[in-house]
Amino acid sequence: MTTWFIIFLIVISTLKVVLASPPTFVMEWLLNKFALHARLSEETTTITLRGKRLEGEEKIQFINQFNEATFFDRYDEYDVPSENTGTPLVIDTKKGKMDVRLSVYIYSNHVDVFKQYNKKAAAYSLRSETLQSTPLAGNGNFIYS
Predict the structure, then answer these.
(1) Which InterPro entries match (predicted)?
(2) Calculated CA dihedral for residues 26, 31, 37, 39, nearest 10 degrees
């Protein structure tokens, strides 16, 4: 009986330590699973502007800048800015098995992102010095060249 009690205490103690401080890869997986601003990968992403696809170095450069952008604010359902009248940069990507469409509006002081997936939508704002300083940033139009 004493042996089983000691084994039970060891198992419970180990479980408590693992749950209180999980390994880094477990935390990264959990955070990425529920992140609003997920990272884009070059293989599963297509980027279009006015029907024209970004390819090669332009695509890689934009994806790197987008991934490095800092999440700034999430818009509530009734708080979505109405200034997004320019031409968006449309990003089609996959998150697991789910298709995700991002509409990106770049301005001189922030970047607005509208995310559509599984009949759901979310809107949020990013900060990125490199994206915000692109040509024509400031009026919602975006030409990356």
Answers:
(1) Uncharacterised_YfmQ
(2) -10
Q: What is the pLDDT of residue 143?
A: 46
Q: Note whether 24 and 87 are same-domain residues.
A: no
Q: Is residue 79 helix, strand or coil?
A: coil
Q: How far apart are CA 124 and CA 76, in angstroms?
A: 9
Please report, in angstroms and rounded to a whole number, the separation of the first and last CA atoms in the chain: 74
- Over the stretch 87-115, which tens digit does the pLDDT of each residue have? 788 899 888 788 889 888 888 788 888 88
Residues 29 and 64 in one domain: no
129 & 64 share domain: yes
Question: CA–CA separation, 67 vs 60, rounded Å?
Answer: 11
Domain region containing 91: 37-145
At which residue do the structure tokens 């800092």 appear?
A: 70
Predicted confidence (pLDDT) per residue in 118-133, tens digit? 888 888 888 888 887 7
Q: Are residues 107 and 145 in the same domain?
A: yes
Q: Are 13 and 64 in a shared domain?
A: no
Number of domains comprising the chain: 2
